[in-house]
Amino acid sequence: MEEAASKPKISKIVFVFTVTLAVWLLFTWPFAPVNWAMIIAGSLVSLVSGIVLGGLATLHPVKGLNPVRYFWGGCYVFALAWWVMVANLDVAFRVLHPDVPINPGIVKVKTELKSESAKTALANSITLTPGTMTVDISDEGYLYVHWINVSSTEVEEATREVVGRFEWLLRRIFE
Amino acid sequence: MSEIAGYAIIIIGALFNLFGCIGLIRLPDVYNRLQGSTKCVTLGTCSILLGVLIGSGVGPTGMKALAAIVFIAITAPTAAHALSRGAHKSGIPLWEGSVVDKYEEEK
Predict the structure, then answer these.
(1) A-contacting residues of B 5-44, CB under 8 Å?
(2) Is pLDDT of A69 > 50?
(3) Interatomic CA distance for residues B10 and B31, integer angstroms
(4) DSSP 3-state assignment of B25?
(5) How many CB pairs below 8 A link A and B?
(6) Chain segment B25-48, per-residue pLDDT in tens
(7) pLDDT tens-digit series, residues A76-127
(8) Is residue B87 part of a domain?
């Protein structure tokens, strides 16, 4: 029983350690010639931050070992880059147009996603995509979204237009 | 060649930063302004960093630029979310031309 309780704790520490060390190695690029002092110092600090901050990390770090999730993660990065581009052209058009054509409002949409990381990623994706910005998330899975050009105030209709772009991808990555 | 491509992307990024600033002036209320500035400044700054990455190649500078792109892409929307939520909680109204405010109705 005790083992079962302590097992996820160690995996969380390993998760934070790996991420922190990876970022550290990215900052201390290049690797050749190998600078052992840098690597050992980074490992020690990563270990300490893993032990201290492991409790705050993602709830299921074991999911991070599944390569299929990384495939969908790559697809997500490309989809996000595309929608960010569209969003910027959209904002540029609205801002430079002489009449500033906007029709703003805060609508309510529903998400089927359950995990905290998935909801956070969804909220951030919505903020970066055309005309929408997340204002708040309720515990029941509703998002309040500021929409610069409201086309429907109904929950279902707005959900399809705002959440539909990313929900299916994030479900495959995080759940 | 990669230097020219890098400079081209940096110029595009600066242009989008400019659009973000124009949006900050022309859009009517805090929520719309956050939308315009967050989106444009995220892409603009990321483009500038991408230009640095392409211009300088894979090396110490480029890798730091890559890490900065990831951090900005994560933190900029989070900041916009916190600012808009804080603005709404402290009672700043939407622009009078707004069509709906579900958040206010269900508070």
Answers:
(1) 16, 19-20, 22-23, 26-29, 31-32, 34-36, 38-40, 42-43
(2) yes
(3) 28
(4) helix
(5) 134
(6) 888 888 888 888 888 888 899 999
(7) 888 888 888 888 888 888 888 888 788 888 888 888 888 777 888 888 888 8
(8) yes
Q: What six digits make up the tokens of B107?
A: 């508070």
User: DSSP letter string over A101-132?
Assistant: --B-EEEEEE----SHHHHHHHHHHHHHSTTE
Domain boundaries, chain A: 2-64, 66-174
Q: List CB contacts (< 8 A) between A124 and chain B.
A: 74, 77-78, 81
Contact state of A135 with B106 under an 8 Å Cβ cutoff: no
Of all residues in chain B, the percent with pLDDT exceeding 90 is: 15
Q: Strands (DSSP E) along A25-139, which ranges? A: 105-110, 132-137
Residue-range definition of the domain harbouring residue B23: 2-91
* pLDDT score of A174 more than 80: no
Give chain B's domain count. 1
CA angle A84, A87, A92 (to 5 degrees): 125
| Model-level ipTM above the cut of 0.90 | no
Question: Does residue B101 lie in a domain region?
Answer: no
